[in-house]
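Deliverable D4.2, example record:
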Amino acid sequence: MRTVTFEERIRAEIHNFSGLLGLYADDLRGNVIALNADEPFESASCIKVFILAELYRRIAEGSVAPDQLLSCGEEHFVVGSGILRCLESGVTLRVKDFATLMIVVSDNIATNLLIDFLGIDAINATCRALGFPNTVLHNRIDFARFDKLGTTTPREYGEFFGKISRNELWSAEACEDMRGMFKDQKYNTLLTKGLPQYFLDAENTGDEELFFVSSKSGSMDACRNDGGIVSTPYGNYVVAIFTKDFKDSLYYQDHESFRFGSRVSRLLFDQYLTLEGRFR
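Output generated by the structure prediction step:
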């Protein structure tokens, strides 16, 4: 009797998606699920995790202090996500505070400040040094001048979070700091929309927090992406789900990328729990 593979179940689930979906998932026990995992995708705000990596590299080597003060000015202003655009120009914060805004609320002004502070060439050099040759920051965020922000692949994005999960990026303390930021990230619909919400709401249910997602998403007209670490009582797994070439460029919570991507996320979640910490 022919069996249906897990990959076939995923392909069947996304059969009616109008675009292309890329997937990389690793149970961190030697089992990887991949679909279009080496396909280049526009990163959108997902590129911000690599900016964060370069900042923490500088902190680890001692050339930047996390409490170093920086000020944002008119040259950093850009529309889009974040809170700094609602404040007066000239806000002064610690460099780590700007990094937190960049990740947790995907603040574009904080991102531009950190790109200027760290340098595009240095950020891209760190991507290459980490073994991510297809991950590139092309430009600072300026929608009037550039329609391209960054490029990455689901595999490289997932492998980045694998390093974070295994405390392999700079130091265990650095990884713990970054995981905390990713856990507080506010825009994780693609990964969490289809998961049992009871498990993700320990604050209101009163149960022990056993399940949580630490991720960074990114959306532009050309893409809807998310990736990170899913923590469960059986351990952690890494997932990156990227989409492009879909018909509808509008932004809303029931976009087909979120609907189909969240179904894939739920399949992975159920498989991992059923096999008590493995995909196979």
